């Protein structure tokens, strides 16, 4: 997906920043972009089709022995934020979410590796990570 994001930034020079984790990517366009006269439907259509095409083009490069058995599809949305501070807040939330998910996954697999079953590991982590997620969202709700 990172290779696709790089190609997106080449294809759309108005993209100034891309951030991805898990199965999601966020792209930030220049504040004054006039891409498709800022028509959200056209931006969504063009970006989703390009990203999907790049993903299919790059598949064999990254998974040479794995057949692509069904066409990929991606959910796309456009959000227009009125000022850069709000964009930074959004990206901070995404980064916090990524950090929490990575922490959870690391702890989960360490518990499983140490002999806990997957269900038991989930129960153990539920206590710790529910409070962590709540505080992360409270932090950014101001």
Model description:
With 142 residues, this protein is mainly alpha-helical. It has two domains: 1-86; 101-135, no CATH class. It has helices spanning 2-11, 40-62, 84-113, 118-139; strands at residues 15-21, 24-29. A two-stranded antiparallel ribbon has the order 1-2. The longest helix has 30 residues, at 84-113. Mean pLDDT is 85; it is low at 134-142. Pfam families: Thg1, Thg1C. GO terms for molecular function: GTP binding; magnesium ion binding; tRNA guanylyltransferase activity. Its cofactor is Mg(2+). It comes from Aegilops tauschii subsp. strangulata (Goatgrass). Belongs to the tRNA(His) guanylyltransferase family.
Task: Give a short summary of the structure.
With 142 residues, the chain is mainly alpha-helical.
Blueprint (SSEs and pairs):
Elements: H1 2-11, E1 15-21, E2 24-29, H2 40-62, H3 84-113, H4 118-139
Antiparallel strand pairs: 1-2
Helix pairs in contact: 1-2, 3-4
Protein name: tRNA(His) guanylyltransferase
Cofactor: Mg(2+)
Family: Belongs to the tRNA(His) guanylyltransferase family.
